[in-house]
Fold:
Amino acid sequence: MRLYSGSATAFVSDTLHNRVADMLREAYRYEYRREPGASEVNSWRNSLRAISGIFDAASLNDNGVILEYELPLSSKRLDCMVLGRDAAARDNGVIVELKQWDECREGYGDKVVTRTGGAMRDVLHPSVQVGQYKMYLQDSHTAFYEGASPVELSACAYLHNYGFRPGDVLFSEKYRPYFQANPLFMADHTLPLIDYLKGRVGAGGGMQVLQRVEESSYRPSKKLLEHVGAILQGRDEYVLLDEQLIAFERVLAAAYEGLHSRTKSVILVRGGPGTGKSVIALNLLARLSAKEFNTHYVTGSKSFTETLRQIVGRRGAQQCRQFSSYTGAEANELDVMVCDEAHRMWAKSKNRFIKREKRTDEPLISELMHATRVAAFFVDDHQPVRPDEIGSSKYILDFAKSKGYKVFDYTLDAQFRCLGSDAFIRWVSTTLGVELDDGTKWNVNSAFDFKILDSADALDVAIQTRISEGYKARMTAGFCWKWSAPREDGTLVDDVTLPGFSRPWNAKPDAGHLSDRVPPASIWAYDERGAGQIGCVYTAQGFEFDYVGVVFGPDLVYRSGQGWVGDRTKSFDTVVRRSGEKFVELVQNTYRVLLTRGLKGCYVYFMDKETESHFRDRLTMEGTPVPPEGT
Structure:
């Protein structure tokens, strides 16, 4: 997705006539169904005027230009890409990161400190940021890596308000590898920037290259757990972007500091579904282990932990634990503990295998912090799905501050699931009442494939079709049917029954013998044998698929004039059913989790038709309400 695409000549003209910012604003409204911020519109107006002048001075007349280009499976957007051919007639693209900065100072690692968003903040050095964008595209867009002559990609940053000063921090020796790889041009570096661009795209032919880029496909998305083994061997299978990289570097810095400090450190990383929390967590495990830090990856999800252990093999399995593993641990036994899915943390340890003399009345979080010098907690405050899951951001921060620990707090906003659409995540959350309703509607013509099906059988057919096409897809459902033990032969009972449709749940976590056609519950999401079973929230949470199917059950219904209403009699989750006034909130969170598991698409069947109507009322088709299925 991009907000603007065309010839360099048209772009210069649109800028000269003060049209380009308004064109971007209209495109933004259409794509995101909301107004862009005033500061973003001003940055478009100012920065694009500056780069337009450069293109004009460089006589880039036969070139293509893309503005605000969204990176594949991410909500991060490139400011500008200019396309063309070099003197050897090779297709080229140059990413230009535009900055309005006029000052900054040195930061830790590959960061600098500058004023942005009304305050001084740690941000990536511009050459690091644009270099990450380049690497990300080269790793995910077929135009830049496939074929005998892929489009060659370069990257630079243009700080059009920043006057060069000898000895400026941006050109410090520590940043040399970055700005040598991806040059940095200041306000008075116009001639070098012109030469840089002309050397790569000055021979024209840019509209043909632009067409090639826009018509090429993205590489099939990398599945997190399919690459964990490679990550733990030190291979960077994922490129971290912007605030992801900042959070990653902060934990690394805190780990180094923590080894030599008497004060423990807590790093809180907040983010909704698909913001890359687990990607950061697993990269931390790989990097810190490679640096010989005693590091554990810890989660409250048995399914996620066991799947990870299977992938990394026995040798790496000891680094992957559950929260309840640290009762009775020695003080500071670990250097760093990476706590993923920390919102699933409970109040007390549940490890019944610990000897009685080692059990304590300490809170679970106290046990975890006792065992490590540094802990990083990755949290989504809207993902607790059981009444005993208490690991909220506030709970963690209050505990850390009460103990006098060093605290670092980061928030992730970019989406790497649902085709990078933060709009879809927000639409699901507001439609379910998890977040304040802002009237957002979902455009069914968007790239992310959202469909409402008229039967469970149709939903199953849609998911199985995607599987047959080579995609990773799973069926899930609200916990509205009993969950039977397997039969004596290890086959599963078809518990999820609807008119014309019946399927089994995935195997129970404590199931005994299982048929060789049935995977254990802990690896249902990963094992291809899980495709014929229905997953509940406890086996789906933390995982992602190309396509997810959801049976939205009658335990949560929408009623006009009342809003969301819970029906305990329709729930087979005995723990949630006994949660009192928290029942509705927990089931809302459950469906939010299920509806946001898809990378490319989500298909839903609603058992309750008034609830379906509520969702349909919040769909649009280029401004037109979506008609019911079959009309």
User: Anything to note?
Assistant: The two ends are 30 Å apart (CA to CA). Confidence is low (pLDDT under 50) at residues 219-230, 351-358.
